[in-house]
Amino acid sequence: MSNIFDRYKVLLIDDEQDIIDILDTVLRREGFKNLYIANNGRNGIDLFNKVKPDIVLLDIMLPDISGYDVFNELRKFSEVPILFISAKDEEVDRLLGFAIGADDYITKPFSAKEVAFRLKVRLKVFDKNINKEIKSKNNIIKFGDISINEETGEVYKGSQSLEFTAKELKLLIYLVNNPNRIISKEMICKEVWGDDFFGYDNTITVHIRKLRKKIEDTPSKPKYITTVIGLGYKFTKGD
Fold it and tell me: Which run of H or of E encompasses 235?
């Protein structure tokens, strides 16, 4: 049965296999289907950059580099929730974790179900639009590694700024503001070009192709803007 948490990506960075196994089992049972695991800090950073998780469980005592160093590296380019898990349960250690900006600090041994609960709470706080809404209150639209500022017209793929014509941007914003709906070319023409536009069929096809080249990782196999043959196009947030 599908649930609202199965769309989130969880990255676990820990070198203790017993903990990895129990968390993997319980988190999947609690609805987290997209789990990624790294057993040291450097692999954790690499995996973070590759999968772009929505939340991170980070052990402090790793075999190569400190969890604090991993945290500081991740914070250079992401604000997703990061929860420390550690055998260090002294007050000074917990305070240090919170002082550098951790979203939570969980000491070992712990209840795996409690960890799942804390993940859910943090995701709800981080993503106010948990019911699959994409647009946030500050007019920033986010999906995958794409962010769009409707007010300024700025679009980023990761840290890279993307250039759009006015029509391309208007088309992109229209699609992402109507997720999981089949949008016909007629509807696109009316909303983006206006009722009196002629010859829109090929023009829209060309614009869709340009959008895919800019925002998709593999334009020939799009995951955001897909074609529904004979009906139109559909925007989905992706995996």
Answer: strand 232-235
